[in-house]
Every structure is written in C-alpha cells, then in structure tokens.
Predict the 3D structure of the following.
Amino acid sequence: DTSQSTTLQDLTPTPTLPTENEIGRDGVWTLSSAKPGFAVQQLRDDHNDTYWQSDGPQPHTVTVQWHRRVTVEEVCLYLDYALDESYTPSHISVRIGTTYHDLKEVKVLELEEPSGWLRISLVKPGQRLKRCHMVQVAILANHQNGRDSHVRQMKILAPAW
C-alpha cells in the first residue's frame, strides 16, 4: 500500500463544478499507466493538490466505462501548467463508443498553458446528445515535449435535465 505524505485535511478543495450530473462515479475507470500513489483515487478525490501521473509511453489514456448507456455532455479536466509545466497536456483527444474497438474521436484540443477546469463540451449547438458506454481521454502530447502527464481532476457530466 503506497500513500502520499499529505492528508485530506491538508488539501485545498477543488473549485466546484456541478456535481448532481456527474456520472463518472458510476463508471469503471482505467488508466493506461500510473506511478504508484498517483492513480484513479487521486484523479477522483475532489482535490486539485493531487493528480494522476502517467508512467509510460504516450499516448496516455483515461478510460471510463459504464454497464449501461449514458448520455455525456461534457468531459472536465483540472490542469495546472504553473505547477506541472512539462507534465501538462498540450494535445488531447476525446473519444466515445461502446467498446475499445469502436471508439470514435469526437473532439481534439490543442492547449496553451491551461490552468483550472477545462470543460470540453461534446455537443455542438443543434446537435444530438452523445450516448455511449465508454469515454476515453487520450493525451497525445505534453508541453515542452514532456513524457509523463499530470491530470489533477477529471469529471464526466451528463446534461442537467
């Protein structure tokens, strides 16, 4: 069992996002790789002082899978270039599908020194909402050609009906 030296009481709460429509808690989370002590628990603990750190070759991926089809409106990432520098993602792809074999890219982003919540809408105005069993965020490149990535928090939001 590996643990960090900080306790939950020492951490700063992440600025709030809507939580009533956060569906990530119902999914199964898979990481392409992780340094010990910097995995899904840190990515999902609601504190921006902790983070997932990848540990391997790019692309780095975070995949969330649900047993039933869900409606996804936004993928939200908390990134902090000032703290993470070369570990900060600069090129991201968001993919959705039913299984790993039919994932389709629905959004590609180039990021310039992001700081705070990045809210990635998967729906264009007038477009139907996305229904899927799986969402994957792929980190294709980092700032300063960094190898491993830090993502401080990640949320998946359904529409606020």
